[in-house]
Amino acid sequence: MPELDPPEFDPAPLLPHLFRISRALAGRLDFLSAIQAVAQEMRLFLPYDHLDLCLLRHDGRLSAAYETGIDTAWGRSGVVDVQRSPIRALLCGEVGHLLTDDATLDPRFHFPGALTDPIHDHDLRARVHVPLVVADGIIGALSISRFAAGRYGAADVAAARYVADLISPYVFALREAERSRQAAIVEAEARAREEGLRLGARDLTQALEQERQRIGMDLHDQTLADLSRLMRDLSRPRLLDAEAVLARLDDCVADLRRIIDTAVPSILEMFGFAHAVRVHLERAGGSALVEVRDESRGALDALEPVARIALFRIVQEAINNAGRHARASRIDVRIAAEPRLRITVADDGCGLPEEVRRTRRKGGLSHMRTRAQLIGARLSVRSGRTGTSVSVSLPQGDQP
Q: Considering only Cβ atoms within 10 Å of each terminal Cβ, which end of the chain, N or C, has fewer?
């Protein structure tokens, strides 16, 4: 990288300003406050209308610019590819600095795909750009601009370079601290999800075991008992006629169908998701008015069986809560495919109890969340005095 300081440039007058910049940076824990501290002192010896600091991420992409003076699209655009940056030649190390009298006319700043709108939108004409260098590697750039053309020269480039060399280690340390903080957050969130899923799976396993026990008790106490009584009565044929036997057998068959439908959603496989939901609504909704709207053109039926059954169980639980506990007079189920595959169960009941809304740890709501997590779906529950809405959606990539 070529020497930038002209022979006649004397850095001595800059030293007090550089000392004050160094002191102002001490203790700064974020990029925005750091650049504001630098900018306040820089204005005294290097006037500007807009100042920004941009950073190269570790993957070689340009981080959002941290600005002061003017709020531009550079600061709002988030992460931008280096190849779209108007100063890509500097960030890629092809030039040691950029100095222009009028950036609105300078072809170096204008190429296909370049994010140059702020230059024209805010008349950022005279510009100086110098690299931020740490251990011979470019980590970003310091940029200053003025509205009037032709306001910067070689001495301004040299002064900006002194500032850039001073603040580069601070900026590098802030970038690494931010990277570590984000990594810690991601790791903590992953651990929390893993622990939540483990606890949820444990609770769901317990619930499934209780459900198996309930089915066994239903079979033993109801169907098996009814069949045993019928066998005893059949041993005394004078006490029964054919019609009475058939009626009691019909009752046993109906009980068995109810138990089987609860354990295995065969209707789901035979007639599809929307029809299975309608059947369950009619059984569990009680006296409530029910409606099922499938606006997805049967998209749920194209899902893998595991995901389809999990979603059905979630809807089943939401309907049961609305019909049995919330005393709803209306239950609406909507299946939508845009912008993503989503099922919403809404009722006008009394809402979830306060302790359930507060803890969300036990019971059906916890099981619904666990089922959603196990298939990578997102569950949202909104409840108040005027009803409850349960919504479950699949990520874009998991849709058929």
A: N
